[in-house]
Design brief:
Layout: H1 11-25, H2 31-48, H3 56-69, E1 71-72, E2 85-90, H4 97-103, E3 107-108, E4 111-118, E5 129-132, H5 140-146, E6 153-156, E7 167-172, E8 175-181, H6 182-187, E9 191-192, H7 194-197, E10 201-203
Parallel strand pairs: 2-4, 2-5, 5-6, 6-7, 8-10
Antiparallel strand pairs: 1-9, 3-4, 7-8
Length: 208
Amino acid sequence: MEVLIPQNQSRLAREAFRAFSKFRERGRNCFFYFWFVVVLFGLGLNAARSQTVSHEYPLKAVFLLNFAQFTGWPTNAFATPDSPLIIGVLGDDPFGAVLDDAVRDETVNGRKFVVERYRHIEDIKTCHILFISQPETRRLDKIVAALKGKPVLTVSEIANSASRVCVQFVTENNKIRFRINLDSLEAANLTMSSKLLRLAEIMPAPAE
């Protein structure tokens, strides 16, 4: 299955997602491919900034998939052993079909993925990874408070949100990077693989 990329996306973006389709068909772990894509998108990000549809979101969809691969949830986060892992998007959805395509036919620990969209925090029943979109900036504190103590990996691109969510996407030097807040992970009773932590900016900064 080929991930759909709008025709006005950069050549690097289209090539990366063609590679993603072939890679997935082989059924191998996504991690090393993931970083291959990060490099490609980082190189092509500046050239694509003026295009109508940002190609950052196909990349961020792959990030979310890989966050699921390297995050541990408590057993009570799932109703049954085969319950799906739910990725939610709160507020305006910048992904369109790309997020659905990225997780289609993928599994993590035997669990399938389900993508859900929510207009309001009150709409969420069960969610394991929640992407909080940019227009939710003014409501971020309310959202975080509503999820307090729940095993939800909160992910956002809102500026300066790393002190409140588990993961913040940051665009620096024309590359998409991410910050991980260890305190937020602990408060949500989540764990994250050292493989992923080594590639992130950690908050609060480890003591030297």
